[in-house]
Design goal:
The structure holds two protein chains of two kinds.
Chain A (H helix, E strand, L loop, with lengths): L1 H31 L6 H17 L4 H24 L7 H23 L15 E3 L2 E3 L1 H23 L1 H11 L1 H5 L5 H27 L7 H14 L4 H21 L8 H15 L14
Antiparallel strand pairs in A: 1-2
Chain B lengths: L6 E10 L2 E11 L4 E5 L6 H9 L3 E8 L2 E2 L5 H7 L1 E4 L11 H8 L9 H11 L2 H4 L10 H13 L5 E5 L7 H18 L2 E6 L2 H7 L2 E6 L2 E7 H6 L1 H8 L2
Parallel strand pairs in B: 3-8, 3-9, 6-7, 7-8
Antiparallel strand pairs in B: 1-2, 1-4, 4-5, 9-10
The chains are: A mainly alpha, B alpha/beta.
Chain lengths: 293, 239
C-alpha cells in the first residue's frame, strides 16, 4: 500500500511535467492548428538560461523568475519575427518552421553550453516529507505543487481576465474577433509567450531529475504529445488530465508490470497515441468536430 | 452646406485575389439614419460591408466621421465606433452569452460604463440576463442574431453594419429584429447600414436604400419611393 502511494505520487510528479508541456502544445494548437515541435527545445533552452543565471551567482528563485520573463518576451518576439511571416501560409509551412526552430535551438544550446550533461540545482529539499506516515520525495511533491499552481494561474487568467477571454476568442473565432477590435495576430504572439512560460517552468522543474543537456526534453515532449492526444488536443483541461493519467499509468506499469520496466515506457506512450487516434480521435475531453462538405 | 454624412464611401473597389467583387461603389449614411443595402446573392452586399471595415482589400475612399478608414484593418474600424455584425452572426458558440457581450466592449477604455451599457442592452433583450451563463452555441438562430446585435451595442457604436440579419430566421423573428433595430436607432441614435435580401422588411425599416447588382449600385433613393416604384420593384427587387 505504501509503495503504491509512493509510486502514484511519483507518477503524478512526472505526469504534471507532461501535463504542463502538453498544455503548452495545446495553447498553440488551439490558436494555430499546428503542433509547435520546438516546444520542448524552447523549454530546454530557457532552462539553460536559468542554469547560466545561477552560475552567474543569482539565487535560484530569482533565476527562475528572470527565466520566466525571458521565456515570455523571447517567445513573443520569436512569433513576431519567425512565425508571423508564415502565419497565413497554412499549417504545413508553420510545422516545417517549428521543426527548423527545434533544430536551431538544439544546435544553439550545444554551441553555447556543450553536450556534457550538467546537474541543475533543485529548489526543493533533499529530505523526504512525511504525509500520513508515508515518506514521499520532496522533489516529487514540489514538482506537483509548482506545476499545478502554474496551471491554475494560467486557467484563472483565461477564465477571469479580459485579455484571457480575448485570447480564447481570437483562437477559436479569429474572423469574428477581428471585427470586435481584437488584434488576433497579437493574441497569437501572446499565446506563444504563455506557452513558453509553461514550458520553461516544466523544464526547470524536470532538469534536477533528468539532468540538463540539449536533448533533455525530447523524451518528455513525446509523453506530452501522448498526453495532449489522450486528453484531446484542443482541450487545455484535457491536456492536464491526460498528462496526469499518463504519468501515473506509466509509472505503475513500469513498477508492477515486469516486461514494461523503464525500457518500454516510451513504447507505451506511442501505443496510447495510436490507440486514442483509432478509438476516440477527439480524445477524452475533445469535441468531435463535424465538417460539412 | 449640409453636414458631411457619418459614413461616406466613394469609388470603392474590393477584390478577393484576382477577382474584383466591387467596381466603384458610392454610398452614404447620414447620422441617425437607417440605410438598406439590397441585392441578390452575390451582388456584393457582404463585400461592401467588409470593404467598409477593411476585412477585404480595397481601393477607393471610405470616410467615417471625418476620418479616412482605408488602409486600416477591421480592428481599427471597431475602435472608431463601427460595430460590424458579420454574415452568419459571428456569435462565439463555445463562449457564454456574458463572455460574448463583454467581448463586444473589448475596445472600450471607459470600463466603468460598460456595465451601464450591459443594463441598457438587457433592456432591449431581457432574456440575455437570465441566460448569461449559457453557452451561446445553445441559443436558437434568432437568439444568436439578437446576441450578435447586443454584442455590437456593447461597443456603444456610432454605426452598426448588419449583414443579413434575417438569414435563416422565421418571418416573425425577422420582424421582431427589425422592430428592435428601429427602436435602437431612434432611442440611442445609432446609425444603421443593413444588408438584406429580405427587401420588404428592410425597406420598411430604412429611410434610404441602395440596390446592388454584380458589384455596382444600380438604383438608390428614399425607401418609400422605391417601395412604390413598380418598375424598380419588378426589375431589381424581384417581386
Amino acid at each position: 500500500m505504501q509503495e503504491l502511494a509512493q509510486q502514484v505520487v511519483s507518477g503524478l510528479a512526472s505526469g504534471s511535467i507532461y501535463a504542463s508541456m502538453a498544455l503548452a502544445l495545446v495553447l498553440i494548437y488551439r490558436s494555430m492548428n499546428v503542433i509547435n515541435f520546438a516546444q520542448g527545445e524552447m523549454a530546454m533552452f530557457t532552462t539553460f538560461i536559468a542554469w547560466q543565471l545561477v552560475q552567474q551567482g543569482l539565487p535560484l528563485w530569482a533565476a527562475f523568475t528572470a527565466t520566466i520573463a525571458v521565456a515570455f518576451v523571447g517567445a513573443v518576439l520569436l512569433e513576431r519575427i519567425v512565425i508571423r511571416p508564415v502565419e497565413r501560409a497554412g499549417p504545413l509551412t508553420i510545422v516545417i518552421v517549428t521543426l527548423g526552430l527545434l533544430i536551431t535551438f538544439n544546435g544553439l544550446a550545444g554551441l553555447f553550453w556543450g553536450y556534457v550533461i550538467k546537474s541543475f540545482p533543485s529548489p526543493f529539499p533533499a529530505a523526504p516529507i512525511n504525509i500520513g506516515g508515508v515518506a514521499f520525495s520532496s522533489q516529487d511533491v514540489g514538482i506537483i505543487l509548482v506545476s499545478l499552481a502554474s496551471l491554475g494561474v494560467i486557467s484563472l487568467f483565461f477564465a477571469k481576465t479580459k485579455l484571457g477571454l480575448a485570447m480564447r476568442a481570437a483562437a477559436l473565432y479569429p474572423a469574428a474577433s477581428q471585427v470586435l477590435g481584437i488584434r488576433v495576430s497579437w493574441m497569437l504572439a501572446l499565446g506563444w509567450g504563455l506557452s513558453a512560460v509553461v514550458g520553461a517552468i516544466s523544464g526547470m522543474m524536470v532538469a534536477p531529475v533528468v539532468f540538463l543537456d540539449p536533448n533533455m526534453m525530447q523524451g518528455i515532449v513525446v509523453y506530452a504529445f501522448a498526453a495532449a492526444v489522450l486528453g484531446g488536443v484542443e482541450s487545455p483541461l484535457g491536456a492536464v488530465v491526460g498528462g496526469l493519467i499518463l504519468g501515473v499509468l506509466l509509472n505503475l506499469l513500469g513498477t508492477y508490470v515486469e516486461f514494461v520496466g523503464t525500457d518500454l515506457r516510451l513504447a507505451v506512450a506511442f501505443a496510447i497515441i495510436v490507440a486514442v487516434l483509432l478509438i476516440r480521435p477527439a480524445g477524452l475531453f475533445g469535441r468531435v468536430s463535424v465538417a460539412r462538405v | 452646406m449640409a453636414a458631411a454624412p457619418l459614413l461616406e464611401v466613394s469609388d470603392l473597389h474590393a477584390s478577393y485575389g484576382e477577382i474584383e467583387a466591387l467596381h466603384g461603389i458610392a454610398l452614404g449614411v447620414e447620422r441617425g439614419a437607417i440605410v438598406a443595402l439590397l441585392g441578390a446573392n452575390g451582388a456584393g452586399k457582404t463585400s461592401t460591408l467588409r470593404a467598409i471595415t477593411g476585412v477585404v482589400k480595397t481601393k477607393g475612399t471610405v470616410r467615417f466621421g471625418g476620418n479616412a478608414l482605408n488602409g486600416h484593418g477591421p480592428e481599427d474600424a471597431a475602435r472608431l465606433g463601427i460595430a460590424h455584425v458579420p454574415e452568419g452572426r459571428g456569435t462565439m458558440g463555445a463562449l457564454t452569452v456574458w463572455e460574448n457581450l463583454m467581448l463586444g466592449a473589448y475596445t472600450r477604455r471607459d470600463r466603468k460604463r460598460v456595465l451601464g451599457s450591459y443594463e441598457r442592452v438587457v433592456g432591449y433583450f431581457p432574456w440575455l440576463a437570465e441566460r448569461k451563463k449559457q453557452l451561446a452555441g445553445t441559443l436558437s438562430g434568432g437568439e444568436q442574431q439578437m446576441l450578435a446585435i447586443a454584442r455590437g451595442l456593447m461597443m456603444e457604436p456610432q454605426l452598426m453594419l448588419l449583414d443579413e440579419p434575417s438569414l435563416g430566421l422565421a418571418p416573425i423573428v425577422v420582424r421582431e429584429i427589425f422592430a428592435l433595430l428601429k427602436t435602437i436607432n431612434a432611442r440611442d441614435g445609432v446609425s444603421i447600414l443593413v444588408a438584406e435580401q429580405n427587401t420588404t422588411v428592410a425597406l420598411e425599416a430604412a429611410t434610404h436604400a441602395y440596390v446592388l447588382e454584380t458589384g455596382r449600385i444600380v438604383v438608390s433613393g428614399e425607401s418609400q419611393a422605391l417601395l412604390r416604384d413598380d418598375g424598380i420593384r419588378r426589375s431589381y427587387l424581384g417581386y
